[in-house]
Design goal:
341 residues, alpha/beta, Rossmann fold, 7-stranded mixed sheet, globular, binds S-adenosylmethionine
């Protein structure tokens, strides 16, 4: 995600996505409360700069304390080593939305390591939470010439390469959580899924890619840089998500809940009342820059002005969206997992 708190400022879409997962998180937190561990550990996997963690984690804290208001709670925010953790801790310290405000006995910390490995001690996590993160793969399985997302490429083998890495990553994530969760512990995840007929997100991904092509044609990017601009993200189907459980690959974990639903589009909802196509374009372009910008410009030679390239991309993408306002159709999945006793 883009640093300097940029993701925090442009992630209201992701905040809308995670709302549907809050009842599952609440139910899981209540179970943890009833089991009554002396100290509760909550892990937030893929926290980014923390803005969208404040409400879910705050609610989870209150619920795990419902049977003992004095129960100490430690919250471990995890993300990649490159994450802007400074923005997260600044938010925790001074933002009115911080879950530390008005609560005591809360101990936040962070881990800058990939969650595809075991990053917390065995059996130490009571409640896990992950929102808007697990559609990011551990790397880009293949570079393609015809799209910024290999899952939408027509090139032979591209989709199969994506599906193979998605499967491998999901199994790695589950295996690591299986080690970290304490017996009876719960994990709630919300992230981009894949629809039963179409993948979803085609409209926005298509405009993003066409904006990159336009930049290449204007001389901002070389052909080789453009080829390497392949985002390491894709949605998973319900079958792909259930597979490790069905095949007995994670014997210590129970799949308690798995659903797919159409993602909300708060930008479109706002446009419905405002009719402001320019604002719709700016909102989408800023969000896409905050979430995908660093990954795309990583392909560009370091001697060039990455900020200028991203500014040009935002301008082109905003204009394309303003000229073609639509509701975005994409999918979210909700997953609830428990660890067997
Ligand atoms: C779109 S942000 C979501 C942030 C926040 N949870 C939310 O709901 O808005 C996805 C985050 O997942 C992180 N992420 C991606 N792959 C990861 C990995 N392998 N390990 C840890 N974090 C990862 C990214 O760095 C990014 O900060």
């Amino acid at each position: 995600m883009a640093g300097g708190g940029l993701y925090n400022r442009h992630s209201s879409l992701q905040n809308a996505n995670l709302q549907s997962a809050l009842p599952l998180l609440g139910a899981a937190a209540q179970i943890v409360a009833n089991e009554g561990p002396a100290v509760v550990t909550i892990a937030d996997y893929g926290a980014s700069q923390g803005r969208n963690s404040m409400t879910p984690i705050g609610r989870a804290i209150d619920l795990v304390r419902s049977t003992n208001p004095d129960r100490p709670v430690q919250v471990v925010h995890t993300d990649l080593p490159s994450n802007d953790f400074a923005s997260l801790f600044t938010l925790l310290d001074s933002d009115p939305t911080s879950y530390l405000k008005g609560r005591s006995g809360i101990f936040p910390s962070a881990i800058g390591r990939s969650y595809f490995d075991i990053i917390l001690p065995p059996g130490s996590v009571d409640l896990g939470w992950s929102s808007n993160a697990l559609h990011w793969m551990s790397g880009s399985p293949v570079d393609v010439d015809d799209h910024g997302w290999a899952i939408f490429s027509q090139e032979a083998g591209a989709c199969a390469a994506v599906d193979a890495l998605l499967a491998d990553d999901w199994l790695r994530f589950l295996t690591a959580r299986s080690a970290e969760l304490r017996p009876g512990g719960r994990l709630i995840c919300q992230f981009m899924g894949r629809g039963p007929v179409h993948h979803g997100f085609e409209w926005m991904a298509g405009h993003f890619w066409q904006s990159i092509v336009a930049l290449r044609e204007e001389g901002w990017l070389t052909a080789e840089e453009t080829r390497q601009m392949t985002a390491p993200s894709a949605g998973r189907s319900l079958e792909q998500l259930a597979a490790p459980f069905d095949k007995g690959r994670v014997p210590d974990l129970n799949l308690e809940h798995l659903t797919l639903f159409e993602s909300p589009d708060p930008y479109w909802d706002e446009f419905q009342s405002s009719g402001d196509a320019e604002r719709l374009g700016t909102q989408w372009a800023n969000m896409m820059r905050a979430a995908n910008g660093p990954n795309f410009v990583a392909a560009v030679n370091a001697s060039r002005d990455h900020n200028a390239i991203l500014n040009a991309l935002v301008k082109t993408l905003s204009a394309r969206i303003a000229a073609d306002p639509q509701r975005s159709h994409s999918w979210n999945v909700l997953v609830s997992i428990s660890k067997r006793f």
